Amino acid sequence: MKIFKLLVPTEAQPLLRLLGFRVNYLNSTVALVICYHLGEKTMIAMELQVATDAVQELGGHGFAELQYITAGFEPFSSAQRPDVVFWPDVGPNEGRAFVVELRMPVNAGQELPAPEILEEHRAFFETDPPDRLSFALATSRGIDSTLRSVLSSKGIEVLDKIQSGSELAHRILTWSAIPQLSA
Question: How many CB atoms sit inside 10 A of residue 100's CB?
Fold first, then answer.
């Protein structure tokens, strides 16, 4: 069994308890959330593991890092949901920012963000000039052609059916047009 400890704003406590997390107050503004890993990963732990593994693999092809920018749009997330940001150092997109928002729901009741929400997140990352940024949603779920089309029309790439950091890194490298060596 693994135990994950996260510090979150105290006002997130009711929602986190509703989601089944154990919450302990540290002071009037911060609470400690303890997540137990008993086999099926929590969404937060899975996203962090996938993102961390992807960043490690992407590092050999450019600069990659975890950021917590889109988490700021969700007041109860407390920056727990990482974004992968990658700048390739070779290929036709050298220096272009590739931003990936991860959503890895572990049960069918958890919804993905609406296209308008993702579009808002993408707009937040806009660069100057605006064509130096690519934005994607990465998820463990399959995305149907209708939603894929809507997201594409908003300039959002879909990286679906992601099950590991290695798979996410491979899909980001393909999307960013990085020449890859065969194994």
Answer: 26
Which residues of the chain carry a pLDDT beneath 70?
A: 1-44, 69-81, 106-110, 125-131, 180-183
Token reading at 150: 């809507």
> Do you know the residue count of the chain?
183
- CATH code of the domain in which 107 resides: 3.40.1350
Cα 94 from Cα 68, distance rounded (Å):
23
- What does pTM read for this prediction? 0.69
Task: Identify the domain containing residue 15 by its residue range.
Answer: 2-37
pLDDT at 106: 66
| Whether 172 contacts 84, CB under 8 Å | yes
Q: How far is CA 63 from CA 60, 89, 93, 98, in A?
A: 8, 7, 13, 10
